[in-house]
Amino acid sequence: MPLVPAAKLLQHAQENRYAVPGFNFHNMVDLQAIISAAESEEAPVILMATEDTINFVGFDYVQGLAAAAAKGASVPFALHLDHGRNPDNLVKGIRYGFTSVMFDGSRLAFDENIRLTGWVADVAHRAGVSVEAELGQIPGHEDNVSVSEQEAGLTDPATVAEFVEKTGVDSLAVAIGTAHGLYKREPKLDFDRLEAIRKEASVPLVLHGGTGVPDEAVKKAISLGICKLNVGTDLRLAYMGSLRQTLEDPGVHDPRVLLRIAREAVMDVVRGKIRLCGASHKAGMI
Ligand code: 13P
After folding, report:
1. Any idea of the CA torsion for 120, 123, 128, 129, to the nearest 10 degrees?
2. So which residues are the catalytic ones?
3. Where are the domains of the chain?
């Protein structure tokens, strides 16, 4: 099954009122876990690499891993560059076969965010690649992107229609009370704000910071128009927790034993999030 633009997956999710989960991966093991779990659930998924992951793995390896996955995969998936802050990296990502890029101009002034996001959207669309943008600032820490609670700001619904129209983006990440990384206290999502945003924009909406958001809140957000749920930290916790546990056994000398168990631990988390998003059994319909 070929790699597809994220917009194709999100359009189907929007029409059928579920969300496509986007999962951050860091290496071959968690990429395989995501694809295998998606296949077992017959679900579309979005594989997401941040600029830090690309620096760690290298563009050539990311491209090779995605191509290997696409060769054998029985489900449609997109390869997404998550939180790109450098437009040059996004252009490079497009050349390397990413089918979706996020330009994160959330720290910029509104007009500058429009100008640069619009430029990225022009370039990406000419290559058939989808574009996600961010309006408002989501707090927390996601690889190279760190936003303090003081800097953070919720998305202002009054700015949404102008932003979407002037940039031509395919999807919009909104700040409605979630944060990247681990929460210090249970997050309270601003559903009234989400409803107001939905009225202003018809593009699929994206919820970042999916780790630690209570299931009921995720389901409600999806019912109000969220079409993509980003999850990263939960996968890292499963991976690292599994490694720590297996390493307690002094009889384990083979990294493949260690990594196979970690891969299964990540698969369990991915399966749970796919079900939470209502994405199971949707692959065949796309
Ligand atoms: P978490 O790491 O909090 O799940 O957030 C992931 C994310 O939003 C990636 O863009």
Report:
1. -30
2. 82
3. 6-285
